[in-house]
Amino acid sequence: MRDADSFDDFYRSTSGRAVRYGYAVAGDPAEAQDLVQEAYARAWRQWAKLAGHPAPEAWLRLVISRLATDRFRRLRGWRLAASRTGPPPDVGPPGEDTVLLVAALRRLPPRHRQALALHYLFDLPVEEIAREAGVPTGTVKSWLSRGRARLAELLPGAAPRSPSWPPPGWSPARWPEAGWCSPPGRAPTRFHPPRVRPPRGRRPPRPRSRRRPPRRRQSAVPPARAVRS
To answer: What integer is the mean pLDDT of 183-187?
Structure first.
């Protein structure tokens, strides 16, 4: 069983020297802190055996040296790959549409931004978004509808009008699910499903007809009377 008190004493007595040793090996203070942190994490996982080691600090320095060696190997591979492929191209500044879209998204509530991002960036259906957010599907549809309506107010005229609609990566089969439809060659428009009348309550009874029932026809021959004895 690991003894937390003995490990705390070991950490307090050796952490300063371990950080200085990591800085001397790695040459970078931030990288040295990462190496030392990983070394102490491994020491804690094996502290039940390491507590009885005759020189636990030497074991710690050995782990730091091996971690630094692995880091140098990874850096060497990255540098070799960069020398073969050349430096990456410079990233240009964001376009005007991107700046306007980001500014408009920041003005939306967090739930609306989350629903729009999951639905349009990750292509998740409404049911899966509802499971992830822990809300009913009707709530997610309301978030999507309100978020799109607010974006339409903040970005007037931002819908594309080119005949190359839809853009690549979109799934037109799921637009009606989100409340949108797109005729071929046109920009997406809002889909208005047919309205369903709500069920009415109990209807009042119909008034009785004022029409009188037909009279019975009287026979020409009077009915026979009983003869008294």
So the answer is: 44
